[in-house]
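Researcher: Quick test of sequence recovery. Tokens follow.
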């Protein structure tokens, strides 16, 4: 009992949470600048910087080389560059983006401290520690802050602002679009067509505002649509579920692997007639649709604002997607501290522990520390055992299991959302 009391006091103490957050930030900053992590992690920063330099030198997005980033992301790259004394200096840009991501982590922490349960800040700190320094080298934190803020507003029936922030998030990365059906679900259920229209309108404004500004500064709709279409051209990522399935099945069937990196993805082309690349492009629609249907069915009585719905829906979309880069795990993970405690039954708690360990293994050990060895194993250029592939495969199995357990959990939640 005394031990439980000590733990309870630690959970309740804001000072404990802040001290642990500071410690984790120091840890991931040390990792971020250490060659073991930095060598692989900073590859994307050079691309971000090149986009920002192009705009700031020319004052236009016209004439830019190949680009797969959406307008919201491009404006973020320029925003980061504005924090530097010399926008053309790469090291200054790297420092700025790391600093801004640290600030975004602190803003997440404040959000969970203010709007979630008492253990949420500690849960968030643990998740940041597990995700590691990759968060400082990408822009997932910007999107997750927008989507989590949107959900806080959604729970308070601030529909227009929630839709606007979600739309802005979609203008940066496409994935939050899967949350849109939940935003309009309450008004559709109530047959409040005016509210449904307003929600859709503000969502559209959020999506199109960065696009409109980009067009005003030289971008074309054709270029923007081409950047979105690029995602459909990418090969099957080696790290994801389908990469592991194709690898295992073709090994069993003695079919040589067709390694085809491209569009920034280390991937392969499936030579299985029943799992073609065309099918794998859209296979996520079926499981995500099933989970969405279950959420809408349960939400008729519980409401649609439970953040666990967002976490589960994003996890399903991510698990069954063609490409699952390590930082993508954050998409669903960011909602965990906001979820009500009713979600965390014994089985779910175990699975959350497993997914944290999977994040730790994949985002800090397999990638980036041993990623070169992982790729060499695929190329047959290394004597490395399939141990690293096994870790990736286990991570994917854990994600599938968590989707199944989370979907089953939907039907055992309290009648009203917490």
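Model:
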């Amino acid at each position: 009992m005394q031990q439980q009391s000590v733990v309870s006091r630690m959970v309740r103490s804001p000072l404990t949470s802040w001290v642990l957050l500071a410690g984790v930030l120091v840890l991931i900053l040390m990792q971020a600048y250490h060659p073991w992590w930095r060598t692989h992690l900073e590859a994307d920063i050079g691309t971000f910087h090149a986009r920002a330099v192009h705009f700031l030198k020319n004052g236009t997005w016209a004439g830019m080389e190949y680009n797969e980033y959406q307008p919201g992301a491009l404006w973020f790259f320029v925003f980061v560059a504005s924090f530097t004394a010399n926008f053309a200096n790469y090291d200054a840009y790297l420092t700025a983006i790391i600093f801004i991501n640290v600030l975004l982590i602190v803003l997440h922490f404040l959000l969970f401290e203010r709007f979630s349960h008492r253990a949420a800040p500690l849960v968030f700190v643990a998740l940041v520690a597990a995700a590691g320094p990759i968060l400082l080298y990408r822009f997932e934190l910007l999107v997750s802050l927008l989507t989590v803020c949107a959900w806080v507003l959604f729970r308070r029936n601030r529909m227009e602002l929630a839709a606007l922030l979600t739309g802005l998030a979609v203008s940066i990365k496409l994935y939050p679009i899967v949350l849109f059906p939940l935003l309009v679900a309450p008004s559709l259920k109530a047959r409040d067509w005016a509210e449904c229209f307003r929600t859709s309108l503000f969502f559209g404004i959020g999506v199109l505002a960065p696009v409109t500004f980009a067009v005003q500064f030289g971008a074309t709709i054709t270029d923007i649509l081409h950047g979105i279409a690029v995602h459909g051209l990418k090969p099957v990522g080696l790290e994801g579920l389908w990469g592991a399935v194709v690898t295992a099945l073709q090994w069993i069937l003695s079919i040589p692997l067709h390694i085809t990196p491209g569009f920034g993805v280390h991937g392969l082309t499936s030579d299985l007639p029943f799992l073609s690349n065309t099918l794998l492009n859209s296979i996520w629609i079926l499981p995500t649709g099933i989970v969405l249907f279950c959420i809408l069915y349960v939400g008729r009585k519980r409401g649609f604002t439970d953040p666990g719905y967002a976490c589960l829906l994003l996890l399903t979309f991510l698990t069954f997607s063609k490409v699952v880069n390590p930082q993508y795990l954050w998409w669903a993970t960011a909602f965990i501290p906001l979820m009500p405690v009713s979600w965390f039954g014994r089985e779910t708690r175990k699975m959350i522990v497993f997914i944290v360990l999977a994040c730790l293994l994949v985002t800090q050990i397999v990638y980036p520390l041993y990623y070169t060895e992982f790729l060499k194993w695929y190329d047959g250029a290394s004597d490395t055992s399939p141990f690293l592939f096994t870790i990736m495969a286990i991570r994917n199995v854990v994600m599938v299991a968590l989707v199944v357990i989370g979907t089953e959990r939907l039907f055992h939640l309290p009648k009203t959302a917490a």
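The mean pLDDT is 90.
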